[in-house]
Give the backbone structure.
Amino acid sequence: MPHASIIAPSLLAGDHANLAASARLVADSGAPWLHCDIMDGHFVPNLTFGPETLAALRRAGCKLFFDTHLMLAEPQKYIEPFAQAGANLISIHIEPAYDHRGTLARIRQLGCQCGIVLNPGTPASAIEALVEQVDLVLVMTVQPGFGGQPFRHDMLPKLQEIDGWRRKRSLQFRLEVDGGVDLATAKECRAAGADTFVAGTSFFKSADKAAFAATIAGL
Ligand code: DX5
Ligand code: ZN
């Protein structure tokens, strides 16, 4: 049975002077997840926010599922602070060299779900040995670092390949896409096997966010 579709609006496209209000817009739309993009200026050429921001959102009453995407050169150093701050799922990239397996295990040990992420230039084969150990695989459909970039259609075969392993081995991980996702590209991703959709610009620009979230949930 395929997973039902989930939308994870990205806080990166919200109002950084009022992130609690942006998170409320997400909750009010009916979206269950909030995608939190953490950038360190090393692994990606941009900076965002850290665990204190997630903790502050929790203190402000935010109950959304925090889908935490670590774009960090040394993610293994920041697992505890994000888990303590209220992350529900923590995703780490495959590209930097560190103990991926041990870091995924540590995320689970701390009571969070764990995910592995691939950049557009990274082949699916790079994560094949890890898929039995994860709750989510995130296929980047733009080069990470900035919102508002065009969707990379050449990532669709990668989704099909990973979805193929999932079916063949009867695995349950979610397959998420991130970057340039809107109603049209989300539909293409769903057809290729994705079930979890990060939407930054398209969600926050949408005039009727509840309708937008419901359309994605219904894919
Ligand atoms: C990009 C981030 C994305 C970003 C997506 O580096 O990982 O989560 O917020 O933004 P949109 O949906 O605008 O492409
Ligand atoms: Zn992201």
Summary: The longest strand covers residues 33-39. The CA atoms of residues 29 and 208 lie 8 Å apart. The radius of gyration is 16 Å.
